[in-house]
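Subject: mismatched residue count in predicted assembly?

I count 314 residues in my input, but I want to confirm that the predicted structure covers every chain. Input:
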Amino acid sequence: MTDEHTADRDELALGRIETEVALLMRFGEATRRGTGTTEHRLLDRAAYVILRHLASVGPQNVSALAAKLNLDGSTVTRQVSAMQRDGLIARTPDPTDGRGTVISPTPAGLQRMAAVQAARTRLYGDILAAWSPDDRDSLAELLHRLNQALESRPRPR
Amino acid sequence: MTDEHTADRDELALGRIETEVALLMRFGEATRRGTGTTEHRLLDRAAYVILRHLASVGPQNVSALAAKLNLDGSTVTRQVSAMQRDGLIARTPDPTDGRGTVISPTPAGLQRMAAVQAARTRLYGDILAAWSPDDRDSLAELLHRLNQALESRPRPR
DNA sequence: CAGAACTACCTGTACGATACAGCTATCTGT
DNA sequence: ACAGATAGCTGTATCGTACAGGTAGTTCTG
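Triage response: the counts match. Full output below for your records.
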């Protein structure tokens, strides 16, 4: 912004970030698809994210979940139905609103979530085995800030 | 590994990384889905990735693309067919192998790819407007290293 | 307080991206 | 020259998602 070198450097960094995020996304998807192996036999990803959210902020109704996850309500309805069938969450009528249904994680659901989380953490430990603690911290911190930046800018258009 | 404090700190960082990557993935998908708005009207994501790869390493056959993108050959076949229909790539018989088909980007394809790339880079510039150049560089670098680490460990199991 | 407008959820349906299985044409090694 | 491998295509199935429409319950308004 102040001089041309800085502008160039920024351009470059942004391009690299764009590239790397795209690449990471590819990896994530490939992993998700390809890994029927472990976790995803236990818990498909949507269920994992829903459980994490329920665990962190407490029981929620379908609409709140949908809003948080950026998904259509109907999608969440179905995912929640599947999770109920699998005993991962429980539906109870919302006492304060006859239309609503409150979704709560079951102990089994929380336990499965924790197991998947642990497996993933282990996986990262494996992948980042050669990294210094400082680098790990930095990555965690920068990703956190990136997500914050993304969150505060939900409508890119 | 050497002392308990380090181990704890690592655990923590790994957990955070796991969380943030999952979150980033969610964002990416939500953006992809929700954004019929701009880029994705122009170029769906698979096409973008394919074009990027073709642009960076030159014309490829379907199998090579599939391997690189971690996708089934049939998937790539269909994507490539759609891209051919849209004039983004051209198929030519492989002169050195009668079975093969070489996929090359067309000028139109490269141009669309560049436009999407520019749009994305601009978007990141927007999102990271408040970041210092140093932080941007760090993020780019760490993401790059993360992807490298992921790549050298393609089969987590 | 009655009807209108809204909201929460569910169900039907459609679509896109993907995988797997099976096919044909071609190539390669013995 | 034949057997087996490989490249690509097509058929079919699945999964996650969205959108449209329906029903029941809630809130607002005159």
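Chain B touches chain A through 63 residues (CB under 8 Å). Marking this ticket as 'not a bug'.
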